[in-house]
Structure formats: structure tokens, C-alpha cells
Amino acid sequence: MDLQRAKEQVIEYLFDESFPPIVLLSGEWGSGKTHFVKNYLMDAPPEEYRVSYISLYGISSIDDFRDRVLSNAYVQSEYRDKGQELYDGLKSSLNITGIVAKFFGDGGLTSGILNALGKPIKHSLLSRISKLILIVDDLERTSTEKLIGEVLGECLNLVEGNDNFRVVVVANEKHITNKDVLEKTFLNRTFLAVSSKDMMAFVDSEYKSLLCPITKAILSNSIDSLSLTNYRVLHRILHRYKLLKRKIDGQGNSEIDVIPSLSKLIEHITLVCNAHFVHGFSKDELLSRSQRSGFNNSLVKEADKDVSQESRKELFSKIMQSSFGQIENYLIYYCLDLSTIPDDFINLFGLSLKTDPVDKLLSFTYQNMNNEDFSQLVQYTKDQFLFIDTPKSIVKWARVLDTLVYFAQNEYIAETKKELISHARIKSNVEGFFRLEDSLNSYDISVRSFEDVEELYNERKKLVVKSSRAKGFSILQERLVESWEEVSNDIFKVYDHKPFLDAVDISVLVKGIVDNWTYNGVIVFGQFLAARYKSSTIYEYLIDEFDAVKSLESELDKCAKVMSESLKKGRIMELLRYLREAIEYIDNSEKQKLEK
């Protein structure tokens, strides 16, 4: 229902003398019920009526509810001018002059007075509220079903005992178990069904200058195609997009091709947020997704066992269709608040560059090309990027290879998947082929559509990280061998969530620990490792040094077995205890990853 029509219907119900003036405004989570109330209903009634809004969140008893109604009715600023008039009437009719007179001279009731007043006086005050429309929000968030019944019963009593008292109750009735109490209370209901037009009106109202005409059109098309009607999810989409746009705008005259990049981002953020927050697809389901290779049925959540795998797969394919190609894994983490914007966001989010033809291929803008231009773009990409022996980002290289394999699989190009990967493996097996990078997490390559591409990426990634970090780690290793105290501050600052042990010669480190390290250094190092691997995110961040930790434990264990009892052996045994605790966390992390 159009929001304007919904407003008119609620007002009609409230002032229809054929029925008690109490209306249920119902809608699903995120349908904009509170937004509708505050932006459409608050100013809607006749001038002589006031509107009072209360939320039931935190209400624990029917007395709490009555006090909140009284407080809003008599304290809110719109009614204070009538305070003295109200007080005079109360004094004459109730003959109360003591505590009420003491506190009531400003025209409002304070919470202290409400606590002091007895129930008979409160009931009398409630019955004398005039010309008021009370909006009661968050009914389903009330603490118990019993209290829901009591609140609705009180609302019905108020409207039936006072011709000038009207109530709108706002709720997601799907979350209220006792349907009978709803049937007994409400003869009139308005269900808030939001349209795409309403969603875009919200965008225009709350984010006036955020979108350009192109990105606004893309968002509107996405909302239409996804049937997205959840305001909260839309707000999240626009907030995530706003932060990224600010980051891009802050780049100044950078190499980013802004409009194609923003167009891609607004669509991909919308797809991810809709899939996760509306349809409940988990992080792992989203990371396993692919428009190219299909959906991983093994990741269907426990909560969805009543939904067939096939129908869930069909839903996933339907709602993840993109006009701009594959969605980057880093962007998925960002949309789900699992990471901040990375420093290398241009590359990791797959943004288009002004002067790089390869980005046209990655951003799927080739779709509007003719055959000749497309063929030239593919050939340029192979000759000047994929197979040429010049330093390049391994992440971008893997994404390009994956895209060309996709082309081969779908017969856009003549080469086969096997030919492309074989050629890429040969060409990339030379020093200097990739730009050195000392931190590449397991999800840096987002495509993962083709296992052969991911396998080759992981092979080359290890070499890239090892070569890159070997340059910077030679000095670090020398200091580490001397003592933990010598290097611990740098480790805490730089490598708290980044691997470093995999770039260290373990046999050299073991000799340094045994021969050079102090007791305090050994113990603090052990505690550091045990705490380091306790985190639930170690697989994503520290997988590259898992083997190094296990190797360190093994080598130290060998040393300890040939040592006689001594202070030196004692501290090694304590370090081994911490290492085995760390390895237990590592094993659990690897097990959980396999189970997924």
C-alpha cells in the first residue's frame, strides 16, 4: 500500500464512529513502521488532536505502561501551555492539593509525582486525557505474552471509556504468538507494504546528494528486481556505500574511473546486503557463491532445513545476478561489518581505472562492445597483462585469469580452460613476475569460481609473500634471534594480525631461543602465541604461519628431549606448553573450516 494511502486509511479508521478507535499498524521487520509513524502520522490528525508516541521496549509491567502514557500525555512540550488549566480542573475534581500542587505548577507531571500518585488517581488522570492519539510502538518487543494482553486490554479500555482518546498500535504481528488477543482487540488493521517508490522516496529524503543520476538509477533498478522493501537494509546499503564514496572522493585526481566504480559498488553492496540481511545467506554461503560455478549446497544453514536445497540454490542465483561481474570477497567482508575499508581497496574491491583497459574486462563493461573491440580487449589483456613478464598484483592477475577461464567455459573465446591455466602457470613461474606484497590473506582472491585458478593463485601467493617478506625480515630475524624483548614492540605494532613466523628460519630461531633468550622473554613469547591463536578469525589472518608454529613446537620438543633437567630446559618446557595450546586452537580452526 502506498504510504500516503496508508496514512489516510489509519486516520479514517481512527475517526470511524462505527468501530472502537484503535488500529493495528502491522508490518514486517524493516518495513519502515516507525519511519512511517514519525514522518506521516505525527502531523496527520485534525488540528485539535495531539499525537503522543511511546515505545514498549523496556516496559516490564502494566503500571510501567500507564506511567509512560501519563508522562507523555501531561509532560510533553506540546501540552505544557495547558498545564495550569489542567491542574485547576484536577484540583477541583480530585481535591488534590498536596504533592500534586507542589510539583504540578509548571504544567507537567514529573516522573517523581507519577511514582507518588496512587492507582485511583492515575486511573482518573488517564480517563481525563482529551484530544489525544496515542501511538504505541514495538508491541512484539514487550517482555511477555501476558503483558502484551494487558497492554492491549488497557488500550481498549482507554478508547472505550473516552470518546476523545484514540490509539494506534504498531507491531510485527508475525512475532506475536497469541493471535486471539489481536483478533479480540482490533477490528481495523493497516498492513504496511512498502513499494519501490517508497524506498526511493526514502533515499531522496535521507540521502539527498549521495547518488548521482546513474548510481541512483542502478539502485532503483536493483530495488525493483530484488523486491527490496526493508528500510533498515536500505539504510545499511547506503551507509556502506557512503563511506566508500567518501574514500573515493578523498583520492582526488586518482586513477579511479569514478562513475563505473561507484556504479559497480552500489549494485554489489545492494546484492550482498539483501542476500544476507533479508534472505539470511551466511558469510560462508556468500563467499562460496558464484554466478559462474554455482552454489555450494553443503552450506545450507540449519535454520533452512525446511527449505529444499534446490529452491535455496534457485533463490541464491536469482538474487545475486550482477551487471558488473563477480563480487569481491573483501567487499563481502566489508558489507557484513567484518572488516574496514582496506588500504588497497581500489584493487581488492575491483574498482575501474581510467587508463587501464584490463579494468574494462574486470568491470564487465565489455558487454556493450562489438565483437572486434571485445576481441582486441581480450588479446590486449593476455599480451600486456596476464602473460607479460612485468611486476603486477597477484590478486588482480588471478581475477583476470579467472575471468578469461569464464570466457573459455562459455565460449566467448577460443582457448580452453586447460590451455589458459597451463600457459599462466608457465609464464608466472619466473622471478619478478608479481609485485612483492607481504600480506595476502586467504580471501584476497574473490573469484574462487574455478578450483584450478585458486590452486595456482595459492601456489604463487606463497612465493610472493615469502620473497617479499624475506627482504624485510632478514633484519627482524636477526633481532628476534637475539631476544624477544628486542623485537616484541615491533611485532605487537606491525604483526598483531599478520603472519611473521612463516618468514623466519625456524631452526635459527630455535637456536636463538635456547641459547640467547631470557626466562621472561620465553614466557612472554609463549603467552603471546597462545593468546594470538585464540581469536576466532585466525584462519583468515594467520593461516600462512600455521605450519611454522607446528614446526617450532616440533623442533623445540626435539631439543628438550636431549636436554638434562635445568633452568634452561624448564623454560623450554613452559614454552612448549604455550605452543601446544596455540596448536590446539589452530587445529580447531582448521577443523571448523573443513566442516564448512
Word description of this protein:
By secondary structure, the chain is mainly alpha-helical. It folds into 4 domains: 3-193, Rossmann fold, CATH 3.40.50; 198-355, no CATH class; 366-469, no CATH class; 483-595. 59% of the residues lie in helices and 5% in strands. The chain has helices at 3-14, 33-41, 62-75, 83-94, 99-104, 111-116, 119-127, 145-160, 179-185, 196-206, 213-226, 231-249, 258-278, 283-288, 309-319, 329-335, 345-348, 357-362, 371-386, 394-409, 417-427, 451-482, 484-494, 506-515, 519-532, 538-542, 546-561, 567-595, and strands at residues 22-26, 50-55, 132-137, 165-171, 188-191. It has a 5-stranded parallel beta sheet, with helices on both faces. The longest helix is centred in the C-terminal third of the chain and has 32 residues, at 451-482. The radius of gyration is 33 Å and the shape is flat. Mean pLDDT is 81; it is low at 77-110 and 290-306.
Secondary structure category: mainly alpha
Helical fraction equals 55-70%
CATH architecture of the largest domain: 3-Layer(aba) Sandwich
The count of DSSP E runs of length 2 or more, i.e. the number of strands, is: 5
Poorly predicted ranges: 77-110, 290-306
Task: Give the count of helical stretches.
Answer: 28
Radius of gyration: 33 Å
Sheet with most strands: 5 strands, parallel
CATH class of the largest domain: Alpha Beta
User: What would you call the shape?
Assistant: flat
What is the arithmetic mean of pLDDT? 81
> What's the domain count?
4
CATH topology name of the largest domain, in short, is Rossmann fold
* Terminal CA distance: 42 Å
Strand order of the largest sheet: 2-3-4-1-5
Binned strand content: under 5%
For the record, what is the CATH homologous superfamily label of the largest domain? P-loop containing nucleotide triphosphate hydrolases
